[in-house]
Amino acid sequence: MIDGSGGCRKVLRWIAWAGGGALAVSLLGSPVRAERPVALSLAQAQSVAVENNQMLKAARKGVEAAQAMKLQTLAGHLPTVRLSEGVMRSNDAVNAFGFRLRQERFTQADFDVNALNGPSAITNFQTKLEILQPIFNGGETIFRRRQASLGVTAAERDLARGEDEVRFHTAEAYWGMVLARASLEAVQQALETARAHAAAAEARHKQETAPLSDVLAARVRVAELQEQEIMAANRVRDAADGLSLIMGLEAGAAATPADALALRAVDVDLETLIARALQARPDLMASQTRAVAAEKGIGAARAAYIPHLNAFAELELDSDNLFKRRGESWMAGAVVTWNVFSGLRSVGAVRAARAGAAAADAQADFQKARVVREVRKATREVVAARARVEVAEEALRQADERLRMTGLQYQEGLVTAADLLDAETAQTHTRIRKLAALHDLNVGLARLSFVVGEAVE
């Protein structure tokens, strides 16, 4: 059940691994039919995911429920109006006497002693209109309404955090698919190179300038890359399913990423990021709001110690026939009630409210400490990913140069086919490592924006 007390936040934590990254199973949206592949930017994919996400739809209903609870608190200010229709039949002397008086059909004959002591059964239909107007209830209504208003605010902030989480997991799935496609292209490029090396080895073997082992080694490498191509293509399909799942598209619907992995600027100032997170994180603000709301609960509980004042008015119509009104009466007044002793119920309620407020404060403090650590961790991951990209770029340049030089040396017969294949394998692995580092950088930046509480890009 999603409510204004963090339900959305809990549901969105159910994570399952799919494709190249963590996807939230709870981010299922209503299936949206896509007739043909559509190239989408990350921002467009996030917009679709937020629009179609079922759990966010439930969270929005949670906000509506919190608003409805706030509406209920008006009952402490507004009158209660109740209309009732009742029927009673009795031969009890007191009731029979009273019914006749209420129906305004009492006669001199009804004073007969025998009639009074042994009356016949009499029926009384009573229509009653009751109005109860609260005037003062010790401030309970005021505190409850403030508490409910804060509950609406907390629910809205939980919803905002839920939308941020959907955007972040969409970014994870999106960059996971981009990585899968780029890795497939890298393997296909390596396969093309390996086939060229195999053809060169076969040509040299025919010229009796290379042993058969060179040809066999090249063919083995081609077969290895063909297997990798099959696996990489399957990972692309898995990643596509993961992205369509989180976007709320039907199974098999294609959503092609329009953005590519790229080196993005990293300008991180830890203290600034922490300060921004403490100001912007919706879930942190929601926990702080709940702490304030819990304080209002103490005031509401204390209201039981104070006398309550209510005004009332009643209008009655009595008759011995359902459709005929004989007697009319009204009554109005006010009543003060004071629970001098309620069996320690009021004392317990106040203590429970204080404990709840203390717990809410502790949760808010813990959430604040967790936010700080999340920002610190995300910042370290981004810095590390950026450094890995730089290392991978330099390694790839060296691997490209090594492969070029080894290829020339192989043509001259200065190195073996094993050397050439080693150089090609190293280049492929280095290229894929660079792609992985770029992926981690892009996902890391998305996570950093998420933990800071800013738009995830």
Task: Please list the strands of the largest sheet in the order they lie side by side.
Answer: 4-5-7-8
Q: State the domain count.
A: 1
Name the average pLDDT: 85
Number of DSSP strand runs: 8
CATH architecture: Up-down Bundle
Distance between the termini: 30 Å
Question: DSSP helix count?
Answer: 11
Order of helices and strands: HEEEHHEHHEHHEHHEEHH
CATH class placement: Mainly Alpha
Radius of gyration: 38 Å
User: How does the helix and strand content classify structurally?
Assistant: alpha+beta
CATH fold title: Outer membrane efflux proteins (OEP)
Uncertain segments: 1-35
The major pleated sheet works out as: 4 strands, antiparallel
Helix residue percentage: 55-70%
Description:
This protein is an alpha+beta fold. The chain has one domain: Outer membrane efflux proteins (OEP). Helices cover 63% and strands 14% of the residues. The protein is built from 11 helices and 8 strands. The chain has helices spanning 7-11, 42-52, 54-72, 93-102, 113-117, 140-206, 212-247, 270-280, 282-302, 345-411, 417-452; strands at residues 15-18, 21-24, 38-40, 80-90, 122-136, 255-257, 308-319, 327-337. Strands 4-5-7-8 form a 4-stranded antiparallel beta sheet. Strands 1-2 form a two-stranded antiparallel ribbon. A hairpin with a 2-residue loop joins β1 and β2 (21-24). α2 (42-52) packs across α6 and α8 (270-280) packs across α10. The chain is elongated. The model is unreliable at 1-35 (pLDDT under 50).
